[in-house]
Hints:
The protein has helices at residues 14-22, 86-95, 114-120, and strands at residues 3-7, 32-37, 45-47, 53-55, 57-59, 72-75, 98-103, 126-129, 144-149, 152-154, 169-173. With 180 residues, the protein is of the alpha/beta class. Helix 2 links the parallel strand 6 and strand 7 (98-103).
Amino acid sequence: MKLTLILGPMKSGKSFELINYFAPLKYTKQNFALFHPASNVRDEQINSRNGVYIESVKIQTIKNLIDGDYSIIGIDEIHMFPESEAEFIEQLLKKGTEIIISGLDMDHAGRLFPIVQKLMEMGPAEIKMKKAVCELCQDHNATYTQVLYNNEPIAKNLPPSIPDDGTFTYKPVCRKCFIK
Ligand SMILES: [Zn+2]
């Protein structure tokens, strides 16, 4: 069924947007659920930076959701899932499930994450592109996420999907400030 993507850099309000979408559903008869990747070691729920949160279940694979009886599914931090998970999203859509997905669109080198590219090829009904405040020049125009190690930008020699365990820090930056 309908696919909605909420994409953008770090600190652009993606999780807040996802939470806003789902918060009213608890007053409806919709059978909905939210999920986020088990590789996110920090969070037991979906947190937005302004303090709002919503219950979410950690999953290793999206495949396990196919047997569920959900009418609406939300998935946060999609970029942390491997490209191979995209086919399960396609199966859910074909089954009639509405899916709202949020995450980073581009990696540390400004390339689309392979799974995000796959999702864009599924003909989403809507793609909400979020922007953040650039942490270097303070323009409200940041679309990239600079990955830093010891405060130095890392653009090369990293796998497309990198751990989110505190080893690296992340800064939203604008096109002018982004170092590839
Ligand atoms: Zn900037």
